[in-house]
Amino acid sequence: MNEIDSSTFVSMIKWSLLFVALLAGCQRSDGNSTADASATKGSFLENPDCFYRNYDHVFALNGPEAVPADAAELTDESEVLGICVDGVARAYWIPAMYHHHLANDMLGDTPVVVTYCGHYSCGSAYLATVNEEPQVFGIAGAWQGMLLLYDEATRSEWLQGSGHSIRGDFSGQQLERLPVVHTTWKRWKEAYPETSVVLGNPNDPRYPADTQAKRGDAEKSPALARTVHMKDGQLPPTEMVFGIAMGCDAEQGGPVAKAYSLAKLAAGPAVTTDQIGSLPVVLFYDAESNSAVGFQRTIGDETLEFEPRGESHFASSDGSVFDWLGRCIAGKYAGQQLPQLPGYQSEWLGWLVTCPETELVK
User: Fold this and answer.
1) pLDDT tens digits, residue range 120-156?
2) Are 35 and 356 in contact (CB under 8 A)?
3) pLDDT per residue over 212-260, tens digit each?
4) Which residues lie below 8 Å from residue 37, measured CB to CB, with a gap of 6+?
5) What are the residues facing 291 on neighbouring strands?
6) To 10 degrees, the CA torsion angle through 61, 172, 143, 42?
7) Fewer Cβ atoms within 10 Å of its own Cβ: the N or the C terminal residue of the chain?
8) The whole model's pTM is what?
9) d(C-alpha 165, C-alpha 310), whole Å
């Protein structure tokens, strides 16, 4: 996750285009989701009972102050969302994001919108541009419990989990997703010592304590809970998963989305090698922060196999060593980066309402 190189950038562009196809409603005949067959994502979008609209009931962080790592009074266990764009690393303290839900920010010369849905413990980040024009976003409410955004220019509405516009002048447009890591402050600042961090107003009494903003919090707002009409019994609704959605696979047909139970990742090897559609992928699980990150397991034309190496490193079959953020620190590929996939962590139900046709690894 150093400065985004051209191959990683192209990979993210391709993913954004593919994800539009997923949202257009491709169907997967062999998906193992037990969601109500008559309750497609399209029908939920047409159901007014699935929406809770309350514009700007909470105000976003606009151009928030970012403090250096050594000035941040956070505990090692404090949870953050971390992103790195154009070589600029920044963390966003979860209690601040839990309250404000989104931050309109600049990383170098790049406008970004960083979002957090406390209802589903789900953080996402996007380039804040539409048709190459910078946008500022606010909070419109929720759809099926998932944070619903709007842009100030046209007041079009956007789904937080997918970055897809569902209503207004920008309807059908897709924000470009940025890789985001939900981890602890200790792990993030170890990986990026020069990082800054957005704290919002740490003295605001409305902010939850670190211990109250943990992932998978079972306490839900009744107003948001009433908007959720998706049904599923494969996992407890609040169990945390790491999900990857790759749109429609040209070779196999149908949408390609897969979610991995964090509990399963924690119980098994720290490396999960898999295939999503025709794409070879690898998940690195970091036990210290209970976090997962997904990568395309190719460098150039070579497809790599991995095994754990110590507590937080991974070795490819040629002996190259990678850290948990996919950066090769020793061996043949030293200095290179595995292309990070646009996956994110969410409570299971939050992932399912965004990607109803998904395969679950549990």
Assistant:
1) 999 999 999 999 999 999 999 999 999 999 999 999 9
2) yes
3) 666 777 578 888 889 999 888 899 999 999 999 876 444 444 557 899 9
4) none
5) 286
6) -170
7) C
8) 0.85
9) 43
